[in-house]
């Protein structure tokens, strides 16, 4: 992927708990419009969307904004959120926030214990 997005294959990191092939790393230079369009086109191809958005540092706010806009366009999404931190490469005493947002059209009960969870609005009304 371009525009600051790439696949992450680091072993032993929280991404492993989210079982998905579709991962987008958002950086501060990422185009929100392009990332949102990419996710929505993926959903049109396959209605069983599972997508992992993640970013760190200044990109955390952008990850949240993208997830909220996508959820507004695809109403049947479940959101699982995991917040982590990483050491700064320049200054080991500084901690940089890292946010993972997993969006799925299918609920994943096993993730509720490990992550924050926001129920699909459609299921919330039906309950």
TrEMBL record:
GO terms for molecular function: RNA binding. It is found in: Nucleus. Pfam families: Alba. The keyword Nucleus applies. Keywords: Nucleus. The keyword Nucleus applies. Residues 26-85 form the DNA/RNA-binding protein Alba-like domain. GO terms for cellular component: nucleus. Its main location: nucleus. InterPro entries: Alba-like_dom_sf, Alba-like_NAB, DNA/RNA-bd_Alba-like. Belongs to the histone-like Alba family. This is DNA/RNA-binding protein Alba-like domain-containing protein.
